[in-house]
Amino acid sequence: MKFLLVFDFDHTIIDENSDTWIVKCAPERKLPNGLRNSYQPGHWTEYMGRVFVYLGDNGVKEDDMKRTMTTIPFTAGMIDLLGFIDENKELFDCIIVSDSNTVFIDWILKAADFHKVFDEVFTNPAAFSSTGYLTVQHFHAHHCAKCPKNLCKRKVLKEFLDKQLERGVSYTQIIYIGDGGNDLCPVMFLKKNDIAMPRQGYTLEKRISQLAQGLSPVQCSVLVWSSAIDIMSYLKLLIKE
Question: Which keywords does the record carry (predicted)?
């Protein structure tokens, strides 16, 4: 009996968007209008690339960024939840699928000593160039019309499950914990026995309820959470059964 926990990162594990939090490093903690208005829907990664160039041009160093990023608060109850998962790792495999980047997630998890809780992190690869600028790339290429150009979370989840099956690992239940519009595609891939846990008041919850009103509900069960303690309560019930 093994469960797979799939977490989004921004507004799910942490209570902010890591990509917008980094703006605190910018001069006067804001971006020029021209840069801010340069975002085009579906091309967030390219936009963040321009933000990182701007920060680099303004002398923002890796240490400054790291200091700023590690002050992001975790979502209410999340520290307790991750501690609980850590204590029960024999029952839970745990992955992150996020539109953030490897550098930010790595810094934040390691600073709080939670990196060991997660078996794998799927997110946009980032690194500092020889000139000290942070660069970010697309996670993969895909053909899903519903998702941003750089990341289809359904594809990531499906490939992970296929790889696990080859290793002889299958899951009693998949529990998907997220908040955003880009979490809907993987949620629609979940089966009847699985659970989607959208964060209360966020886009994913609204999208799931719109589907139900349109009489094409998701196949899986849906449990809304507002604090990660709600998620922990559900997991405790699961492992009692």
Answer: Hydrolase, Magnesium, Metal-binding
Is residue 184 in some structural domain? yes
- Identify whether 54 is part of a domain: no
Annotated binding site for Mg(2+): 8, 10, 179
In terms of phi and psi (left: phi > 0; alpha: psi -120 to 50; beta: otherwise), the region of 156 is alpha
How does pLDDT run along the chain (241 residues), one tens digit per residue? 899 999 999 999 999 999 999 999 999 999 999 999 999 988 888 999 999 999 999 999 999 999 999 999 999 999 999 999 999 999 999 999 999 999 999 999 999 999 999 999 999 999 999 999 999 998 888 899 888 888 999 999 999 999 999 999 999 999 999 999 999 999 999 999 999 999 999 999 999 999 988 877 899 999 999 999 999 999 999 998 7
Binding residues for substrate: 19, 99
Sheet of strand 221-222, all strands in order from the earlier edge strand to the far edge: 120-124, 92-101, 3-7, 173-178, 195-198, 221-222
Q: Is residue 63 part of a domain?
A: no
CATH number for 184: 3.40.50.1000
> Is residue 10 annotated as part of the catalytic site, yes or no?
yes
64 is catalytic: no
Cα distance between residue 23 and residue 35, in whole Å: 12
For residue 78, what are the domain limits?
Answer: 3-15+74-125+146-239
pTM assigned to the model: 0.95
Distances 232 to 16, 93, 118, 172, 176 between C-alpha atoms, Å: 20, 15, 16, 17, 13
How many domains in the chain?
1
Residue 218 lies in a domain: yes
Q: Determine which one of 10, 93, 183, 194 is catalytic.
A: 10
